[in-house]
Write a structure and sequence with these properties.
- With 323 residues, this protein is an alpha/beta fold.
- It is built from 13 helices and twelve strands.
- The chain has an eight-stranded parallel β-barrel with strand order 1-2-3-6-7-10-11-12, surrounded by seven helices. A two-stranded antiparallel sheet has the order 4-5. A two-stranded antiparallel sheet has the order 8-9.
- β10, α8 and β11 form a beta-alpha-beta unit.
- The longest helix is centred in the N-terminal third of the chain and has 17 residues.
- The protein starts with a helix and ends in a 5-residue tail after the last helix.
Length: 323
């Protein structure tokens, strides 16, 4: 398991990773993102921003890097960064397949990505990822599995994923939507020749959306590494948008709202890696300060009251505009 390298990294930030969803393409649904990136979002401008973030993350101790085929050119930007720094050999690189980026580098596309968990899409996207990241890829996850995803029942796909695993690639899945817990539990039952197929799970979990918590604890107990995404709830937990209870804890501890939001996730014993989705270096540095936050029982109790009904949470997320 490549995540054993994180445990041996001897860095206090080994449980924090950097996700590239916000900087690999010109449009994304994070609140405030229209102000975070250059007005001219050329490929070169976002490549430079991505490399700046990767440099800052690595210098501060981050060792897990997360991309996806649907994150525009995120894999390309990450591959460029790795090639330019051959001395860096201690990072764990993860990516995902199952969505195809269709916005053609615009922010006003009718559809920004198209989902398909079929075997043909896996074969195509696996080849595309391999062409960019080669043997630097450690983890390949099915992107946004839901309980009705054919990826949970397609035995031909499972066999191909098992072949990749036998060649040294770690296989995992991510989840989205109000039924994440059901998807996680269904995925835990997927086996090939009697052995569990998946070794990681990447799910949305944050102060507003906690419904996957018990299932993620079960996955951890089953031996999977748990990666948490969207810890900032697409910007809803950042300073300008954060609920008052979160702001109060931030004031009391002397940390930013973002650090409190991520520290809450780090307090979960099942959380293996918690992703920052920062789009600027100051955001990243503030996010990473979560590792130094200590939340007491009173803080945790007050933050627990922020949880929303998952159906309401995901309905609101679905209405966020692509900036």
């Amino acid at each position: 398991m490549p995540f054993a390298r994180l445990a041996a990294a001897a860095t206090p930030l080994s449980r924090l990773g950097l996700g590239l969803a916000a900087v690999g393409r010109p449009g994304y649904i994070t609140l405030g993102r229209d102000r975070d990136l250059p007005a001219e979002r050329t490929v070169d401008a976002l490549r430079a921003r991505t490399h700046e973030l990767l440099d800052a993350a690595y210098a501060q101790g981050v060792r897990y890097l997360d991309a996806a085929r649907s994150y525009g050119r995120a894999e390309e930007f990450l591959a460029d960064w790795l090639r330019a720094r051959p001395e860096i050999d201690d990072v764990v690189v993860g990516s995902k397949w199952g969505y195809t980026y269709t916005a053609n580098w615009t922010t006003d596309a009718e559809r920004h990505e198209v989902k398909d968990h079929g075997l043909a899409t896996y074969e195509r996207q696996r080849a595309e990822t391999a062409a960019l990241l080669g043997d630097r890829l450690d983890l390949y996850q099915i992107h946004s599995v839901t309980p009705d995803s054919p990826a949970l029942t397609d035995r031909a796909l499972h066999a191909r994923l098992a072949e990749a695993a036998a060649q040294g690639l770690t296989i995992g899945f991510s989840t989205s939507g109000p039924a994440q817990a059901d998807a996680i539990r269904a995925a835990l039952e997927v086996t090939v020749d009697g052995a569990p197929l998946f070794r990681t799970v990447q799910s949305t979990y944050n102060a507003l959306e906690t419904s996957a918590g018990e299932a993620l604890a079960e996955a951890h107990e089953a031996g999977l590494t748990v990666i948490v995404k969207e810890g900032m709830a697409n910007g809803r937990l950042a300073g300008p948008h954060a609920p008052e209870a979160l702001r109060a804890v931030a004031r009391e501890t002397g940390h930013g709202c973002d650090a409190i939001a991520l520290a809450l996730i780090l307090s979960r014993p099942w959380a293996g890696v918690v992703l920052s989705g920062a789009a600027t270096v100051p955001q990243l540095t503030s996010n990473l300060s979560a590792a130094a936050v200590e939340l007491d029982d009173d803080h945790l109790d007050r933050l627990a009251r922020l949880a929303e009904d998952p159906r309401d949470y995901w309905a609101r997320r679905g209405q966020l505009p692509w900036h």
